[in-house]
C-alpha cells in the first residue's frame, strides 16, 4: 500500500499530540496516511504496554489512518544505529510516502530528539540503492520521501510553518483522549505525571488557538523543516 504521508512517533500518542489535527485534515482531503510507533511506551509511569497498544488502535480508528504499526524498539534505549535505521528504511520502502512526519528535533523527553534524528537519517538512507532490504521475502526498491517535517511537542519551538486545523481540533483531542491511561482523569489512582495534569491537556488547546490566532484562524499546528519551504506563487500563502 502506497501512502501519501507516513507519521513516525517514538511513543504511541506522540503523533496524536504533535500533528493529530493535521493528519485528520489530510485524511478528510483524501490523503492516505499511516502511523509508525517506534516503541510501545512501556517505560511510561502510567498504564502498561498492553493498555497503550489498545489505546493506540482506538486513536488510529478515530483519526481514520490507513495503517498503524509498531517497530517494537526499546522505550528509552533505542539508538540511531544501523539496525534501527534498517527497520525504519523497511517501513519507508514498504509504504513509499511522499511526506514523512516525525518527532520534534529537540524536546524534554530524550526519545523525541533521538527518534527525530533516527527517522530523518533513515529517510535519506532509504534512497540509496545499495542498501538492500526485504519485506516478506521480497527485495524492496529504494525510496526517499520528498520532504521530512518535524511536529512540535513539549518545548515551545518556533515553527517554520503552521497548518490551519480549524474544524479538526476536536478530532485531535478525541484521539488524544483515547489514551485514557496517560492523560487527565480526575478519578485515576495512578501517579501524576507531567502529561497527566489538567493543565497539560488544556495547554494543547492553548497552543493550537495561539498558533491559529497568529495566522487568523481558530486552530493550527506548527512544524519545523530541514530545508527551505518553496511556493509557486505568493498567492499560495494564506
Describe this structure in words.
- This protein has 238 residues and is of the alpha/beta class.
- Helices cover 37% and strands 16% of the residues.
- The protein is built from six helices and nine strands, in the order βαβαβαβαββββααβ.
- The strands form two sheets. It has a seven-stranded mixed sheet, with helices on both faces. Strands 5-6 form a two-stranded antiparallel sheet.
- The longest helix has 18 residues, at 198-215.
- It is globular, with a radius of gyration of 17 Å.
Mean pLDDT: 95
Q: From the structure provided, what is the oligomeric state, counting identical versus distinct chains?
A: single chain
Class derived from helix and strand content: alpha/beta
User: What is the share of helical residues?
Assistant: 25-40%
Strand order of the largest sheet: 3-2-1-4-7-9-8
Strand content: 15-25%
**Low-pLDDT ranges:** none
Largest sheet: 7 strands, mixed
What sort of overall outline do the alpha carbons produce when their principal axes are compared? globular
| Termini Cα gap | 33 Å
Q: Kindly provide the radius of gyration, computed on alpha-carbon positions and rounded to a whole number of angstroms.
A: 17 Å
Strands, total number: 9
The helix/strand series, from N terminus to C terminus, equals EHEHEHEHEEEEHHE
Report the total helices.
6
